[in-house]
Design goal:
By secondary structure, the chain is mainly β. The protein is built from one helix and 23 strands. The longest helix is centred in the last third of the chain and has 4 residues.
Amino acid sequence: MGLSWQQGPLATAAIGRFLVPDPLPERLLFAEPLRRRMRVKFGDRWIADSADVVLLHEPARYPVAYFPIGDIVTGVLEAAERTTQHRDFGETTWYTVTAGDSSKTRAAWQHTALPDHASDLKGRVAFAWRAMDAFYEEDERIVGHAADAYHRIDIRQTSRHLVVRDGDRVVAESTRPLALYESGFAPRWYVPREDVDDSALTPVDGQTFCPYKGLCSYWDIGDARGAAWGYEDAWTEVRRISGMISFEPDKVEVELDGTRLRLEPGQSVISHGVDRDLTVEELSG
């Protein structure tokens, strides 16, 4: 995500540019050693355990972990007859994954006709995230997708004046918001609950989660659906935003020091593929 997601340097909506005379290719893919031990559980068994995982960053995709075949339990993978074509890596073989009484079709894949420049992925298999029971780094479970070392969140206290309006109604006004800077995203502004008119917020059924911040709740503001969101119990690393509210500048009017904020290009979060469909149920699995 930090490299190829949203507005990152390798993303199609990058806000910066490489200072080189010739334009870069339209798509840049980046693979590197993860340097973290990763394990996969399926059918209540550990089916993969490796300290030699390669992480693939692909434009507009969450990062994907590729395991050496030798670090996958023998007999877990059964090649399916169907193959697909990856636009950059060519023929892709899909596997049925079986462990104990559990079996899932098209639950893992391998690029079997890699061009020479993509040899880092040779002899490696990726598991469909949602098809597995769980992924771990060492003894701690990770959710959503493989953790990206380039994805960073910084939170800063500020005294800037932030005002949120729905038409003529002031929904929030604060001179003590928190600025949250997250890789690939424009800054997000979180307002203390005491500075928000709670009567303007209508809770929305359903939640989402962020692998870096936790479980997210949403509110409508008037006719603006999902115009506000917040993490009631944010994860430890970003605990400072717990209970605070942030607002979508394309759905309600958000002013910072008198300047209206606009939603920047490429800022919508979209799920991609069977391996990276983020759902709340994964948190309780």
